[in-house]
UniProtKB/TrEMBL annotation:
<comment type="similarity">
    <text>Belongs to the UDP-N-acetylglucosamine 2-epimerase family.</text>
</comment>
<protein>
    <recommendedName>
        <fullName>UDP-N-acetylglucosamine 2-epimerase (non-hydrolyzing)</fullName>
        <ecNumber>5.1.3.14</ecNumber>
    </recommendedName>
</protein>
<feature type="domain" description="UDP-N-acetylglucosamine 2-epimerase">
    <location>
        <begin position="25"/>
        <end position="366"/>
    </location>
</feature>
<dbReference type="InterPro" id="IPR003331">
    <property type="entry name" value="UDP_GlcNAc_Epimerase_2_dom"/>
</dbReference>
<keyword id="KW-0413">Isomerase</keyword>
<dbReference type="Pfam" id="PF02350">
    <property type="entry name" value="Epimerase_2"/>
</dbReference>
<dbReference type="InterPro" id="IPR029767">
    <property type="entry name" value="WecB-like"/>
</dbReference>
<dbReference type="GO" id="GO:0008761">
    <property type="term" value="F:UDP-N-acetylglucosamine 2-epimerase activity"/>
</dbReference>
Length: 395
């Protein structure tokens, strides 16, 4: 009998990180993998599904205009109850910290199904930052039976919360697996503007800012800091894919819409974004995933938040938390633009988030959990010396 795995996700970031794992599980002879999407994000999710050629067996299509967290939670919970009853999985795989993740974990628990949590154990220690993701992660961690922690630090967070170490596997992050298939030095963008930017002679700063805790004054501060940068540095051009959320667009366009050298574009699909990261000079972002993706491509990241649940990047020197103060953002960006040694120090740091084998570790951990393999898969280990251990297991 095959192990029946139900993989559930609902947003573009989840889909990007689950795609390499889903593709691997679909190829397995020991596992039958079924995919359910809530479509908490519709258009952006569909871009990823198309890129990785994933056709969900279940699509709840819950997204509606100006949806609240309660809308998403209730619709996903009710819909996934039916999916779980219909598919009868041995384990439900969820990813990260979204509302879909929490709802899927709770729906699985109500049906007395095991839960596997991919990208488990990230914590800021503050339930309001990031909101609502910090609590989504903690509650999912309480419901999960098997935890796939991307780093040793994430594993230690879980142990402190009472999780049994035997069922925590340090895997690295699956987004590094995805990057292996999406980045191409000869890539031609489907967004015409991105093909005419002078990446060689300009310092292109890629910006993303859309988190709920930054709505209002923090996002205004971020936009004003961007204005300051392009006015101060003639060689800087900014590319800002602006999230579709009206709370973001209603702030960003009035402040930056008429600023020369600031290009406001629609959100990019995964391949476009990964290749744009690769061509950029550095990133200003409040995204969690970009804190992992950009360092893998040698790009410094200035995080537009007061705290991060990904301290490994800060410790490694690839990431710096700069907050949402206009003056603070400007000051830290100037360091990278004006000080070549400061830039080299961040861009040359080793990415601590993975080696491209996270999906294989998760696959073998599932087999181990269900008794189909006797040997526990080796943990991913990042050493402060910059050495990555564990990849030879899958050579």
């Amino acid at each position: 009998m095959k192990i029946k795995v139900l993989a559930v996700f609902g947003t573009r970031p989840e889909a990007i990180k689950m795609a390499p794992l889903v593709r691997l599980l679909k190829e397995s002879r020991e596992i039958k993998c079924t995919v359910a999407v809530t479509a908490q994000h519709r258009e952006m999710l569909d871009q990823v599904l198309s890129l990785f050629n994933i056709i969900p067996e279940y699509d709840l299509d819950i997204m509606k205009e100006r949806q609240s967290l309660s809308d998403i939670t209730s619709a996903a919970l009710k819909g996934l109850e039916k999916v779980i009853c219909s598919s009868d999985p041995d384990i439900v795989l969820v990813h990260g910290d979204t509302t879909t993740t929490l709802a899927a974990s709770l729906a699985a628990f109500y049906q007395q199904k095991r839960v596997g949590h991919v990208e488990a154990g990230l914590r800021t220690g503050n339930k309001w930052f990031p909101f609502p993701e910090e609590i989504n992660r903690k509650l999912t961690g309480s419901l999960a039976d098997i935890h796939f922690a991307p780093t040793r630090n994430a594993k230690e967070n879980l142990i402190r919360e009472g999780v049994e170490p035997e069922w925590i596997f340090v895997t690295g992050n699956t987004v590094i697996d995805a990057l292996k298939t999406t980045v191409d030095e000869r890539y031609v963008f489907s967004t015409p503007l991105l093909n005419v930017i002078d990446y060689k002679n300009k310092k292109v700063v890629l910006v993303t800012a859309h988190r709920r805790e930054n709505f209002g004054q923090p996002l205004e501060n971020i936009c004003m800091a961007i204005r300051d940068l392009v006015e101060e540095f003639p060689e800087v051009e900014v590319i800002y894919p602006v999230h579709y959320n009206p709370s973001v667009r209603d702030t960003v366009f009035p402040i930056l819409g008429d600023v020369e050298k600031v290009h406001l574009i629609d959100p990019l699909d995964t391949r476009e974004m990964h290749n744009l990261i690769n061509k950029s000079y550095f990133l200003l972002t409040d995204s969690g995933g970009l804190q992992e993706e950009a360092p893998a491509l040698g790009k410094p990241v200035l995080v537009l938040r007061d705290v991060t649940e990904r301290p490994e990047g800060v410790d490694a020197g690839t990431v710096r938390v700069v907050g949402t103060c206009r003056e603070g953002i400007f000051k830290e960006a100037v360091k990278l633009l004006a000080d070549e040694s400061e830039y080299r120090k961040m861009s040359g740091a080793i990415n601590p988030y993975g080696d491209g084998y996270a999906s294989k570790r998760i696959y073998h951990a599932i087999l181990y959990y269900f008794g189909l393999e006797q040997k526990r898969p080796q943990d991913f280990i990042y050493e402060s010396t910059g050495c990555l251990k564990g990849e030879r297991q899958f050579d």
